[in-house]
Amino acid sequence: MEADGIKGTIFAIKKYAIHDGPAIRTTVFLKGCPLRCWWCHNPEGIDGAVSLVWNADRCVGCGECLQACPEGALQLQENSVVRNENVCSGCLGCVSACPALAHEATGWRAGVDEVMTEIKKDIPFYDESGGGVTFSGGEPLQQPRFLLALLKECGRLGLHRAVDTSCFAEIETLQEVAEQCELFLVDLKHMDSDKHRLYTGVGNRKILENIAALAASGSAVRVRIPLIKGFNSDEVNIRRSGEFLTGLGTIDAVDLLPYHSAASAKYRKLGMEYKALQFAPIENSEVEACKTILQHMGLEVHLGG
Amino acid sequence: MNSRIERLRQKSFEAQPSISIERALLETEYYKENSGKYSLPVLRAGFFRYLCEKKTLYIGEDELIVGERGPAPKAVPTFPELTCHSADDLRILDSRSMTSYHVRQEDITTYEKEVIPYWSGRSMRDRIFSKVPENWQRAYQAGLFTEFMEQRAPGHTVLDGSIYRCGMKDYQKRIKTKIEGLDYLGDPRASDKYEQLTAMDIACDAVVIFARRHADLALEMAAREGDAGRKKELERIAEICRWVPENAPRTFHEAVQMYWFVHLGTITELNGWDAMSPGHLDQHLRPFYEKEIAGGSLDRQAAKELLACLWIKVNNHTAPPKVGVTARESGTYNDFTQINLGGLLRDGGDGVSEVSYIALEVADELHLLQPQPSVHISARTPDRFLQAAARVIRKGHGYPSVFNTDMVIQEQVRAGKSVEDAREGGTSGCIETGAFGKEAYILTGYLNVPKILEITLNNGIDPLIGEKVGIETGAPGDFQSFEELYQAFSRQLEYVVDLKIMVNNYIERMYAKYSPAPFLSVVIDDCIEKGRDYYDGGPRYNTNYIQCCGIGTVTDSLSAIKTHVYEEGSLSWDELLQALAADFKNSEGLRLRLWNKTPFFGNDDDRADGLMQRIYESLFSTIDGKPNTKGTGYHINMLSTTCHVYFGKMLGATPNGRHAHLPASDGTSPSHGADRCGPTAVIKSLSKMDQVKSGGTLLNQRFLPSVLKTDADLEKLAGLIRTYFRLGGHHIQFNVVDTSTLRRAQENPEEYRNLLVRVAGYSDYFVDLDRDHQEEIISRTEQEMG
Hints:
The complex is a heterodimer.
Chain A: E1 7-17, E2 25-30, E3 52-54, H1 64-68, E4 74-77, E5 80-83, H2 93-97, E6 103-105, E7 108-111, H3 112-121, H4 123-129, E8 132-137, H5 144-156, E9 160-165, H6 171-178, E10 183-187, H7 193-200, H8 205-216, E11 221-227, H9 235-248, E12 253-258, H10 264-270, H11 284-296, E13 300-303
Parallel strand pairs in A: 2-8, 8-9, 9-10, 10-11, 11-12, 12-13
Antiparallel strand pairs in A: 1-2, 1-7, 3-6, 4-5
Chain B: H1 3-14, E1 18-20, H2 22-34, H3 40-54, E2 75-77, H4 87-95, H5 105-119, H6 124-131, H7 134-141, E3 157-158, H8 168-180, H9 190-224, H10 228-243, H11 252-269, E4 276-277, H12 281-295, H13 300-315, H14 324-329, E5 338-342, H15 354-366, E6 372-377, H16 383-394, E7 401-404, H17 405-414, H18 419-424, E8 426-428, E9 432-434, E10 439-448, H19 449-457, E11 461-462, E12 467-468, H20 482-514, H21 518-523, H22 527-530, E13 541-549, H23 551-567, H24 573-581, H25 588-596, H26 606-623, E14 634-637, H27 643-649, H28 679-687, E15 700-703, H29 711-726, E16 731-736, H30 739-747, E17 756-758, E18 763-765, H31 771-778, E19 782-783
Parallel strand pairs in B: 1-2, 3-4, 5-6, 6-7, 10-13, 13-14, 15-16, 15-19
Antiparallel strand pairs in B: 7-16, 8-9, 11-12, 17-18
């Protein structure tokens, strides 16, 4: 197979994914993202490298990881396993030794074949429901060679392919991916570039240009606005978002995804700061108001993914 | 729901189950007077007629469909000829906290004086237990299997459409012709047939008498009734009860009342397991509905009201109270009446009609315990019907359950039934397949498959009681390979199954000889034709099922041994056996390794699923085709109802890391919490089981309400179901409820009286379940994908 030997880093393969594109899908999450969105729901996908996490609540203190570690990087200190990052080689010996799943890797290196084996398992469900495969992240375009190899394999099998991307990528890469997928899922975060930079780490110019380019080249794009109170749900931004979308000429629908703080446990586990905690959950009335504005601009609006 | 139905529903919902000793008293009286005067079939029929002549009648306010088995809703008679409850049994029933039945003190006294002295030693149960061999007793007490027929009659019967075309008069004509044609010279069984056919004839009279008494009572009530509307209704009831069941019904109302009288007849005559079911009720009522709608004598609302009345009638009929092991493994008020909706017609056409949708609406709006609807989906069933069912599933009552018609048909054709009879068949009880109106498909009891592995690991000894309950197949430490272990397991399986079948066959003949069911025999083909009783091979098809439990637990346990002891060599037999004996005390690390680092069934992982296939094949080859007493054979069935909780209690720690006494896996579902890859992986694993060789499998899935919020979500659920069926699945059912709701219901049961949850092949009120069953449901993996 052409894809032989190509590997990438992923952090999850989710089956019966029913909110990542049409019908029943398998979503493959590729690790690594150039953005730093405060509200990111998959913080384990931000860093492109695999790291190790230790879950205190699962540990039963059996000490098997200490024996399994060839570098002697682990120490038991007051009911807590401490890792010396300078010594740890990242061999994952502790992960395979731990009976309690207390040691966890935030992702793994996977070959195209391995991922395809998992994808292929659910073909009967895609066939029956009209679903397929979605590549998400992280930012899947961060690993273009791996992503393209997977897309081509899926294409060879006739599977419907969606790519969930921030569109923060080189246009050439994006165009190459566009040749190999049936649908893009794209988030429109904020129309003001400064605000966009403040809350995501990057400006929005490249993203907006890329969305426009995809739309102009006839790619199917499904745009979603993560609705975050205090960030982008104000009338001005919603209007500008609507204007941008209607101006593209080929976009007639938009999904509104009201923000919720379900990811906070993941941040705790990863020892990461969850800046989005300061966002209050958005009220239904405000969601409805956004919906009405966009509908008046001629867009079809769906709530949820 | 109109106000009449609202009131009837409330009354039925609030009625407390109680014991009525009327039937037992009448029966004792009748037997004292008549036993020995007649052949047994005629004696049974005579008693049935006596009961129909004498028993207290009940016509409640607002009712349109009439008739109760006891003197009032949820007043349950006893059947001392089968199981004679002791005074202690009755006191326990009255006072126990779960599934209690109110018994009046004076009734207990009367029972002690009148009923117990006569039936003690004469009841079927007493006679059976005095005869069964000691090794069977030991295995039974150890929880290796259960025995259905030790206190309730074999039953599990479902009707086809013939009672809507034939009245009792018509059946009697057929009986008369058969009697006239008996060949006393050439047929050595002619006089047996004469007795049996005569009994059937008497049984027909009995239900007609019962109906006429209702007609008389309705007229009396009408005469006293002040309200003109109700007076008219009572007069109409009287007319109907004078017409059916003697004659074939002419209207929708008569058809529903016809079914109800036949249902009552069968559950009054005896207490066959799982009450009685109407089968494809929507298909049976469709001609009446369409004719009357076209003619203008019925509208949709009126039809719906009548169906609701039938629903409430079924709900009024609580299961007869159980005792002993059976009470432990079946702690429910449910007596399972399953109504099949959709499916295919006898000629292969689509069975869905407007009546199917009305029935779904009734089930949804009433959300009562019984009856429980199932939807039957074939490749040609319209999507909009599955969608309508999915909208009810989303409500979280736990029903309708969903069946694959095409598979249900294939299973039956494999077992030798004609394709038309198979289409007219369907499922009853929980998930059991049968040819409606033509088959006795007897559930004989559950088999504790993980327990069979447990005794294999202990050389035939039950480690919980230290007694030998199996055969000696060697100490596991001596098994040089996984293969040797598996061979030992297969031998224990063979031994236990043979032991069970030996006693089943004995009990079956006891029923055939001493407890015939002449009324049931009237309505099941070909009992009249053959002049044989339902219990004696009269039906066209005769099947015995053994229900195999715990395939998830046993697969995962064998997978753990294979992986850790034989493949990786990281675990010694001594270490494992000691940990199991100690219920993993001081070896939590090992327990977690077994639990977390073993390929388990339910994850679309061929390593575990391959073992499941092998075990399934062993169950099949050990059981399928073993002869029963009717010239046909045993088949496997893969349901556990609630027995996996009882079986789990009787089971020590298992090699899959399961603690002692926790439930075994239910039906054909993966072990609790073992499926970690979402519902599609569970379905893929299940589809590797060659389900067509079974009499049914059972897959429970618990979904969070958030996964089924929108109509688009429901379409995806339908996609999931259709895919499973395309892959050869028999059945799937859903609990749509989140853990926090269940926990709140445990804390405040009074506020959650109405919370129905899917238990096994049926729903039950969550607050009526004991703590073990509640915890079992909570521990089912919550599918929150998406």
